[in-house]
Amino acid sequence: MSFRFGKRVKIAPGITLNFGKRGISTTLGPRGASVNLGRKGVYLNASIPGTGLSWRSRVGGSAKSPAPVQPDPIRRGVPPPLSRSDVPDTTRSPQAVPPPVPPPVPGTMRPANSPFATFLMVSGVLFWIVAALVALALYSA
Q1: Which of 9, 16, 33, 72 could disulfide-link to 27, CB 3.0 to 4.6 Å?
Q2: How far is CA 141 from CA 62, 94, 98, 128, 135, in A?
Q3: Of 44, 52, 40, 49, whose CA–CA distance to 28 is shortest?
Q4: Is the pLDDT of residue 90 over 70?
């Protein structure tokens, strides 16, 4: 069993800051039609309030990483004839060859939580907050 944490702070009408265990995101728009800007990307949200029916879509494509490329199947049967390049050269001294690096297991790779990435995320959220406050100030005057 794991703990969940979430806190929403309303900054202005239609602007909400969302705090979670894994970071901060910003939601722009009224109930029923909003845009969410966060660490996992930009999402469009639409719903019919009070019904439980909703729709969510990532802007710019799927959030899933592309499927790994499958290696060619092993061909059974007679091997192809050897060429001169396939025969090892025993006249040279052996060189240290590093062992091959195994491919990453799908679902285990995560972006590094570097200070620069955190700075970019926070500055992006702050940009949208300032932009929304400026828009509110211009249109409310």
Answers
A1: 16
A2: 40, 79, 67, 20, 10
A3: 44
A4: no
